[in-house]
């Protein structure tokens, strides 16, 4: 089967920044190191990483807003620094800030100024985008009167208004209440169903796990791990069960004898009834059942622990 042509293609991308000269010695910091990444049409790629891992810098390269030290970035086959590449992109920045005397309606019509649409088509597009993000009721209010979450929602509408094929969303859930988060998640899945390609960065691992087809863990400017959806399903989501004594071996459970005489059992939720039965039979008490961590959270922690002596990523380079 032939692979679909990637709409975002990054090859061997390096970004180095020159620090101030010290004693005539020039220092360089590597912000991104040998990033190679491709996203196919209609797919959702989630990027996660610690603060300072390089996520926003990577996004800036995709948007053609900064120049790479080496390597290539292309959007729909066009180098990312060419203006034509941007026609394919809708962008929500990490901390959206817009002229706050504007209304969402005015802001979105600015986003459509290069589109050949009739007045009524523009109006229809603006209304439907504001409705999609739950901001239709505030279409004519000044942005300066908005909460952070309302600005975030308006920013998302702006990213969508020109109907781009590719959406680049830097922390789309930031500042949103639980309803807002669900709304954005549903919206992203809807956009995906419409064939849009989405690349987003987030610190909310549950959302990333739910929405992404593929996840990239960026650490200290490098791709530390890529996880495909199929692999995500297979990640362990084990329960941890604390039992008041020693247990004999049991199928489907890993048992660790603790120094205080208790046992810590790890098992999948479907084998819990067998384990409870075993505890009853052995006359042991179940002291605690801890639900699984987000499986992505477990993998993320593992990757970070194994790829670094965790010094703050900002010190890297
Ligand atoms: N203009 C700049 N000048 C100097 N250093 C910079 C600049 N922009 C980014 N950096 C450094 O590059 C590294 C990556 O920053 P970036 O903003 O891409 O991280 P991030 O993963 O988006 O972090 P966060 O999760 O906190 O948003 C950081 O160490 C940051 O200090």
UniProtKB/TrEMBL annotation:
InterPro entries: AAA+_ATPase (IPR003593), ABC_transporter-like_ATP-bd (IPR003439), ABC_Transporter_VariousFunc (IPR051782), P-loop_NTPase (IPR027417). Residues 8-245 form the ABC transporter domain. It comes from the Bacteria. Keywords: ATP-binding, Nucleotide-binding, Transport. The keyword Glycoprotein does not apply. The keyword Transport applies. Transmembrane segments: none annotated. GO terms for molecular function: ATP binding; ATP hydrolysis activity. This is ABC-2 type transport system ATP-binding protein.
């Amino acid at each position: 089967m032939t692979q679909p042509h990637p709409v975002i293609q990054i090859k061997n991308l390096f970004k180095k920044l020159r620090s101030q000269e010290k004693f005539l010695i020039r220092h360089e910091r590597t912000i991104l190191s040998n990033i190679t990444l491709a996203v196919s049409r209609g797919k959702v790629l989630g990027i996660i990483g610690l603060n300072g891992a390089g996520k926003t810098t990577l996004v800036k390269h995709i948007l053609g807003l900064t120049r790479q030290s080496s390597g290539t970035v292309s959007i729909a086959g066009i180098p990312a620094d060419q203006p034509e590449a941007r026609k394919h992109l809708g962008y929500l920045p990490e901390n959206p800030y817009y002229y706050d005397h504007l209304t969402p309606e005015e802001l979105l019509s600015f986003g459509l100024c290069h589109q050949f649409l009739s007045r009524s088509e523009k109006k229809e597009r603006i209304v439907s985008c504001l409705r999609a993000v739950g901001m239709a009721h505030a279409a004519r209010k000044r942005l300066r009167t908005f909460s952070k979450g309302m600005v975030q929602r308006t920013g998302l509408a702006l990213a969508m208004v020109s109907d781009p094929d590719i959406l680049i969303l830097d922390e789309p859930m930031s500042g949103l209440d639980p309803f807002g988060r669900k709304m954005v998640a549903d919206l992203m899945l809807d956009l995906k169903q419409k064939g849009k390609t989405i690349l987003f960065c987030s610190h909310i691992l549950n959302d990333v796990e739910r929405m992404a087809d593929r996840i990239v863990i960026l650490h200290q400017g490098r791709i530390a791990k890529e996880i495909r959806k199929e692999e995500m399903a297979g990640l362990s989501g084990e329960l941890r069960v604390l039992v008041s004594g020693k247990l004999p071996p049991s199928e489907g459970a890993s048992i660790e004898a603790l120094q205080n005489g208790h046992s810590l059992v790890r098992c999948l939720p479907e084998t819990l009834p067998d384990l409870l039965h075993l505890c009853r039979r052995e006359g042991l008490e179940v002291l605690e059942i801890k639900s699984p961590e987000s499986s992505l959270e477990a993998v993320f922690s593992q990757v970070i622990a194994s790829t670094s002596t965790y010094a703050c990523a900002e010190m890297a380079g």
